């Protein structure tokens, strides 16, 4: 097992988003001819580039060492029959309560980890 190393966990902020409220923080590439961020001047904000990417072996891994697979019905859980040591089930947010219970039962039978087992499932009071 390779240790998960993130090269950067901070988000890239949009240029001048700290200066004006009308400019949101979500990243947009600067395209101005004189822009110091685009020209990569010393002391200016960093731009996203391919070098910040994760290691291919640890990409998409959760801290517990498993990868997530989003599931919307019971048949999607059966896909992970042979991969219960490398994948975890994540029930999609659009799945209702009744189908959610069926998915949880099938995942337990196959020995799969569910990342969000208590979402939308109400216990008897």
List the helices and strands and how they pair.
Elements: E1 67-71, H1 74-78, E2 87-91, H2 97-110
Parallel strand pairs: 1-2
Keywords, please?
125 residues; alpha+beta; two-stranded parallel sheet; 2 helices; 15% helix; elongated
Protein architecture, described:
Helix content is 15%, strand content 8%. The longest helix is centred in the C-terminal third of the chain and has 14 residues. Strands 1-2 form a two-stranded parallel ribbon. By secondary structure, it is an alpha+beta fold. The protein contains two helices and two strands. The radius of gyration is 21 Å and the shape is elongated.
Query: What is the string of SSEs from the N terminus onward?
Result: EHEH
Cα Rg: 21 Å
- The chain-level mean pLDDT equals 93
**Segments where pLDDT lies below 50 for 5+ residues?**
none
End-to-end distance: 43 Å
Question: Which band does the percent of strand residues land in?
Answer: 5-15%
Largest sheet: 2 strands, parallel
Decide which structural class fits the backbone: alpha+beta
The beta-strand count equals: 2
* Secondary structure tally, helices: 2
Please tell me what the overall shape is. elongated
**Major β-sheet strand ordering:** 1-2
Helix content: 10-25%
């Amino acid at each position: 097992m390779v240790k998960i190393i993130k090269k950067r966990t901070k988000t890239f902020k949009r240029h001048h988003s700290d200066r004006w409220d009308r400019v949101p923080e979500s990243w947009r590439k600067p395209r101005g001819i004189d822009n110091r961020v685009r020209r990569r001047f010393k002391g200016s904000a960093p731009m996203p580039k391919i070098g910040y990417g994760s290691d291919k072996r640890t990409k998409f891994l959760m801290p517990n060492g498993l990868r997530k697979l989003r599931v919307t019905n019971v048949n999607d859980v059966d896909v992970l029959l042979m991969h219960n040591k490398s994948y975890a089930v994540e029930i999609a947010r659009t799945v209702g309560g009744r189908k959610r219970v069926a998915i949880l039962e099938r995942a337990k039978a196959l020995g799969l980890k569910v990342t969000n087992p208590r979402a939308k499932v109400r216990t008897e009071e």
